[in-house]
Amino acid sequence: MFRLEKAISTWKRNLSLNRALLPEDVEELERHIRDHVAAGVARGLSEEEAYRAAMEMVGDLGGLETEYRKVFWEKVASRRGVFKELIQEFSMLANYLRIAFRNLWRNKGYTSINVLGLSAGLACFLLILLFVQDERSFDRHHENADRIVRVHFGESQVVTPTAAGPTIARTLPEVEMFTRVYPLGMYQPISVRRGEEAFLEDGFFFADSTVFDVFSMPFVAGDPEGALNRPMTMVITESTARKYFGNELAVGQTLSVGSGTEYEITGVLEDLPATSHFQFDLLASFATTGWSTREIWNSSNFYTFLLLENGGLLGAAQAKVNDIVAGMKANQPGAVPDDFQLVLYPLTSIRSEFEGRSVFVNIFSAIGLLILLIACANYTNLATARAVRRGREVGIRKLSGAHKGQLARQFFGESAVLVFISLVFAVVLASWAVEPFNQIAGKSVVFEPFTDPLVLPTILALGIIISFIAGFYPAMMLSSFEPARVLKQSSRTGSGGFGFRRVLVVFQFAVTVFLLAGTMVIRFQMAHMQDRSLGFDDNDVVVLTISDQELRRNYKTVKQAFLAIPGIEGASAINSIPGYQRSGYDMRVEGQDLAGETEEGRRLVSGIPADEDVAEVLALEMIAGNGFPEDPGYEPEPGNYRYLVNRTLIEEVGWDLDTAVGRQINLLGNRIGEIHGVYEDYHYRSMHEEIAPQALFIEPMQFNRLMLKTAGGSVGELMTRIEETWRDVAPGRAFEYSFLDAEIEALYRSDRQTSAIVSVFSILAIFIACLGLLGLASYAAEQRTKEIGIRKALGANVGQIFVLMISELTRLVIVSAVIAIPVAWFVMAGWLEDFAYRIDLSWWIFALAAVSALIIAVATVSYQSIRAAMTDPIESLRYE
Amino acid sequence: MFSKPLVSASLQPIVLTILSKGEAYGYEIMQEALDLSDGQLRWTAGTLYPLMHRLETKGLVTSIWRPSEEGPRRKYYRITAAGEKALQADKQEWIDLHAILIRLWGPDLQPSLQLA
């Protein structure tokens, strides 16, 4: 029996819960319905029929609300109720959050898997963000950073002749000023002394006095104005000042450099930030050297920096510089080589582009983003998998008047709560992991979320973005469930979002396979470099530095003194140690303009001055000739130079091994001499570079290093003896030593860093992906309980059920591998390009990565799957 | 029946015209439009009332609650001076538009509805 009053009051109750309609709106509508019903009854309809007609006229609740919402804020504003309404909205927000917390608390397993994955992902991302930020900030601390360019000599050489700066500055009005820096200490460490205390300084540079106008280098003492005007003056960094003077005032005091020149200290600088591409400790006035006023083009040892009027003038300036160079080539033939050019390079690109760090930065940015997306995919997957269970909840909420927008907000609330909880953990994790990360990455980034004003807003923005990315799909999917459908179905069927879930799993495993393959290639390449013979013996070699002419002149006496120590088996003086042999010479050979008067037969070779014992100390393998002859009275003179050359040199010139010994070559200028032996190629530079022709020759005035071959074993006591001997033969010089094998190791530091970081992040990415898989597996097992029960009741065994459970996953992992392998192949081939001696990319590395990913995936789900397969069918079927 | 955009566009001038003849409550306005158009102007409550409220906040109409002899009170709407002005502007626009359409289509087009 239809009762009008009851129908109207039910209808009214639903409506009055809706904020979009004010109480008087409801009253107005009620009156409308009553009028409508009354008119209908007057026309002879029954009350029920009239009521239905009236309801049709009113429109459904959703449509009604939408229309009322459109005028809602205008009405509220006209009645000055905005503030109250906002409070209301906020209390709704609080309500969403409260319900979200309650839901998360009730599903602790689900919540902890998500929080674990998200916080690990976010922590990685934060660390990588810091790293990238640090790389990006290189050389940006200078006020004029955007206006400073460095002049390069050709495409790759960063040092220029003294004439480059003044010539350009005179000709180009765009150039405000230039400054030249002469990094003497980088070529050979300089001995700096105060009283009895001496140190070898590789950070001893010279600079024009304009250096402080071009660069921003704050002084802590002294006056930047004219600090480097006079000869024999120098400015030092704060920590250098502390090293030599302790707490004394450094300005006004002197330090003795090299063989005793006294430099007055006119200023103390703040230490250079780690994000400066050049690092010095002592900066002496360029005016001290004869170079500063001699404008010459034929010796390139100096950095030249220009300060442009503005950074936009770079193109114009480069064009004019090209004109200068073209003019020189036309007017003064022979003054500069034919291939000579000057390139202006922006200061802020030196680190990223010139030093190639941007590749590194891009790789890590990509990894950080991928890890974060894997973590988001976990959330999306688990939330939609759970949706099947929550279908009923959604249905009931909708029936009780909730509409799509409200439910979507509710589900967004849940993702936001999870993400922000995870962010808190991520911040804690990141601040804990930043130190180990610095060590692995060789960085010194700091993570100070509460003191750096930029960090918290970044983190908040990140939280909001991630909540949205992770929560969008589940919110849309869950809120659009139709109550009639979800309530009619039994609670555990339905596969909402199943297709999308598969896409995300494929994405996660594609990334996993990619990272696994990348890690393997990097590791194999590192192992390849470790295993590859260097061609010389780097074990048990102590390296000392010969820093002045006197020691060079007396190198034989010095050697003898060390050889007298028991436990030292050999000694050899050399210009630079293997791995770091960079100096090059123009070479001519007999029959092709040996004297080097023309361009004929010109070859650039590596030329390293070394003494007669070099082959023995480095254990080079002689493949022809006997090596340098024993000849204590030998002094090199033009015409009687003595050479050892490597196999590649002989092959490049086209000589036979048998006839090479005794032939004449000349390393310009004027070092004609005879080949006394050929040695097997050794890696005189890092394995990134190919072995090129090399010649060793005796020229004591160029010796910088003394290598001592020890008998091996413990060196503790031996080092004391070596130090005592050093004090004896080189009084007043700093005693500093290193080991050859450690120096070689250092060559590959950045490769090892890449390897370590990629490995760590790959493991994390895999871990996070597996967490998600674990969660999905438990839902899948639960959802299929009944199916498994029936299959078992019909005779399937545990093995068959297990295969059934993992076959889907196996297919997905295979699809992932098919997607990931070509990408990984392409990327890793590019990475390997940078190594002259590299592994071949063979298919099995990628197959291994795919199989590993599959094994990891199956292992992750196996516990759940086996448990599901083992369940007694009676248990699982009893539910119904 | 008219298309939705046309219904929405014509809502304001029609409502204001009805009110210009004297105050009325929502159901009355709706009925009048229905009668006037031989059932062609069939608004829902969700269309009419939000419009009334918007006209009210714009100051084109005012409203007043009056008790009725039987049942709950009714909310009556009355056009304001501003409303009259808006109606004149609306009228002019519709007539101009109508004139353009007639000029385009010719004078022999007959409306399907004979207005009383």
Shape of chain B: globular
What class do helices, strands and sheet pairing of chain A give?
alpha+beta
Give the domain tally of chain A. 5
Indicate the proportion of strand residues of chain B.
5-15%
Notes on the structure:
The complex is a heterodimer of chains A (880) and B (116). Chain A is an alpha+beta fold. Chain A folds into five domains: 4-80, no CATH class; 87-139 and 356-496, no CATH class; 156-340, no CATH class; 498-534 and 741-880, no CATH class; 549-732, no CATH class. Chain A contains 29 helices and 24 strands. In chain A, strands 1, 2, 3, 4, 5, 6, 7, 8, 9, 10, 11, 12 and 13 form a 13-stranded mixed β-sheet that branches. In chain A, β9 and β10 (261-269) form a beta hairpin. In chain A, α5 (82-106) packs across α14 (404-441) and α6 (108-136) crosses α14 (404-441). The longest helix of chain A has 43 residues, at 357-399. The radius of gyration of chain A is 39 Å and the shape is elongated. Chain A starts with a helix and ends with a helix. The mean pLDDT of chain A is 84. Chain B is an alpha+beta fold. Chain B has one domain (4-105): Arc Repressor Mutant, subunit A, CATH 1.10.10.10. Chain B has helices spanning 4-20, 26-36, 45-57, 81-105, and strands at residues 24-25, 61-66, 74-79. Chain B has a three-stranded antiparallel β-sheet. In chain B, α1 crosses α4. The longest helix of chain B has 25 residues, at 81-105. Chain B is globular. The two termini of chain B are 18 Å apart. At the A-B interface, α2 and α4 of A face α2 and α3 of B.
